[in-house]
Amino acid sequence: MITVEEAEAIILQHTLKPTPELVPLEEALGRVLAEDLFADRDFPPFDRVTMDGIALAYATLAQGQTRFQIAMTVAAGQPQAILNDITQCVEVMTGAMLPVNTDVVVRYEDLHIENNIATINVIPEKSGINIHTRGADKKATELLVAKGRRITPAEIGVAATIGKHKVWVQKRVSAIVIATGEEIIPITETPLPHQIRTSNSYALQAALKSWGVAADIVLLPDNQLVIEAQLQQFLQSYDVLVLSGGVSAGKFDFVPQALANQGVQQLFHKVSQRPGKPFWFGIKQNTGKVVFALPGNPVSTFMCLHRYFRPWLDASLGLPTQRLMAELGKNFVVKFPLTFFLQVKLEETASGIPKAIPIEGNGSGDLVSLTATDAFMELPLGTGTFREGEKFVIWKYR
Q1: Domain range holding 236?
Q2: 27 has a pLDDT exceeding 80
Q3: CATH number of the structural domain spanning residue 118
Q4: Could you tell me if 308 and 242 are in contact, meaning their C-beta atoms sit under 8 angstroms apart?
Q5: What percent of the chain has pLDDT over 90?
Q6: pTM of the complete model
Q7: Distance between CA atoms of 38 and 145, rounded to whole angstroms?
């Protein structure tokens, strides 16, 4: 049996290397950018008016002139105007190109207009006021967004403004979530007293999809021949296999042997943690395919997915893994020499570090307890009392 840290180190040695693919911009949200985005021109591309008002030459204000004839009106989207007489002004709208021979914009709030004459009530302190200068944000050819970033609406906007109607992104990781067990039936059926509906597979699939993984699900019986036949197919079709159940030491836990028979090398089986001790991890030789065989109890499955699969996925995509900290909300005693993943409810604090309130459910089979909590707090290997106010890593799932 290995430690949590050893298990993580082994897993991170076997990350994927997704290939790039070109997708329409409207399909790029949530994907990982596989190319750098550069400015195709200055940002902004012209001296841009940032307030509705009048544009004029500051030199005339400096000489004491406060009344200006309005020579013309310019809206956003119109070609640049020219103010030929600097004793006059141009009425301008937000987003318009700053007219030639003007260098300051006075807001409507700071002036009065009557009979096409603008009288300034509040004199600007200097030129350049209310003007977004050409190239102030970025110059042409400058890097705007570096590859390796997950695409949010902000990156979509940047790509659109430089005309990238298609972008290179990393290909989605494909996964198959496999649930095993004779007691498990499809959710469309009514269970007999000795049966339960499959739930782990749907919870795992939902988490994977929320992380951008293309995930399918399948339910297999506790039959080694059937499991092996399906594993052979899945190892060819998917990047990663995520199994739930069948990895303990029971008489009908066929998964480890079935994986071995299909050329999947076991890298570890059992981690000194609670919940999730029977966790199994391996790789398909010479293919880079990865197998996460998680314990069948729902809380164990859920914890292992967030603690191990998510960091592996982030590393595969070149993304940083967020290791958030929280303060333990009350004393908690651990009586066994294992790393303990404590279910907690998070509360905001003035310090910005959340407080983690322990919520004790009814063990690793208590699926409903996950709806009342927000994260797992990782209490380091050892026994004894963990004190209120001590800070530990949390793995959020809400």
Answers
A1: 4-18+172-317
A2: yes
A3: 2.170.190.11
A4: no
A5: 77
A6: 0.84
A7: 7
Let me know whether 245 and 375 are in one domain: no
Structure-token pair, residue 28: 């790029």
| Residue whose token pair is 């939902």 | 206
Give the per-residue pLDDT at 119: 97
pLDDT, tens only, 132-149:
999 999 999 999 999 999
Q: How far apart are CA 332 and CA 388, in angstroms?
A: 8
150-171 residue pLDDT tens: 999 999 999 999 999 999 999 9
